[in-house]
Amino acid sequence: MKFQQYEEVIQFINTKPKGNVVAALVQRFPGIKAKTLGSIWAQDMQRKVKKNFHRINVPERASEIYRNYVSCVEAGDPPGILVKMAVAMDYSSSMLAKLILEQYLHANCPDISVSKSQVNRLLRDTTKIEDRDLSIEVYLCLLDDDVYGPFADSIKHSVGHEYEFLLRRELEKLNISYKNEDDLRLRGYDKTPDIKLDIPIAVDGKVVNWIESKASFGDEESHRTYLKDQFWSYWNRFGPGLVIYWFGFIEELDEHRDKGIMLRDSFPSNIVFMDPLSIAQPTCDTKTTVEPC
């Protein structure tokens, strides 16, 4: 995806009507895969939450939001109050539910400090929330949120494993020998790619020693972070490698091929294997060699 098209998607997200954003994106950009659009939207939501978190979570603002929620419950509004509030705020419904839950615990136990572990325990099992209305509201938020919360985390974890399995299956189909992340850590490595090839391959004329699987879209912010925290470390330790962004990436970010980091959005089909027999064997020059061969 070209950067210009990516900007058009982001602009549409920021000017969208309220509702199912991914469905609206699929309708607006029929030529782009739904998984790609969903990943772009999720990354944009993460940026918004990070940007607005400290503004929303200040005590005065958090208390105001909680009072608004209580007023809606007392007025007899139907379930889904917090989901509607999150949509109106353009904020994560799970993060809003967490804020409301913290405020509820503070209001009902003012003399007891509310711990993160206590809040997270209630988020993982909403049946333990004593207030029936709040229990339902928090549960609906967790179901609604595709970006944050225990349900979303489990889904992202599963999707990540699914694409790592897909990568391993493709390698095994071609009888390509490799070490996975667990194998490398057993050998004492700390920062490891998903796959370290036992014998390098070539893709698009570039040597590949390792492969990293990313079940996400490669936007500028996430890719720069990965470069700094992961990819250059792999390059330093294992040499040139390949990153697969399964949900696509901004094409202009594929700027480090000559330096040894290549980007793809699928498993490569144009693989060239090294032929050990083609490597020239050293020969002895009896005229110039002092020691016998």
Q: How does this model look, in words?
A:
- The chain has helices spanning 3-14, 21-28, 34-56, 59-74, 81-89, 93-108, 116-124, 132-144, 150-173, 181-186, 220-238; strands at residues 178-180, 195-203, 206-214, 241-245, 261-264, 271-273.
- With 293 residues, the protein is of the alpha/beta class.
- Strands 1, 2, 3, 4, 5 and 6 form a 6-stranded mixed sheet that branches.
- The longest helix has 24 residues, at 150-173.
- The protein starts with a helix and ends in a 20-residue tail after the last strand.
- The model is unreliable at 283-293 (pLDDT under 50).
What layout of secondary structure does this protein have?
Elements: H1 3-14, H2 21-28, H3 34-56, H4 59-74, H5 81-89, H6 93-108, H7 116-124, H8 132-144, H9 150-173, E1 178-180, H10 181-186, E2 195-203, E3 206-214, H11 220-238, E4 241-245, E5 261-264, E6 271-273
Helix pairs in contact: 2-3, 4-6, 6-8
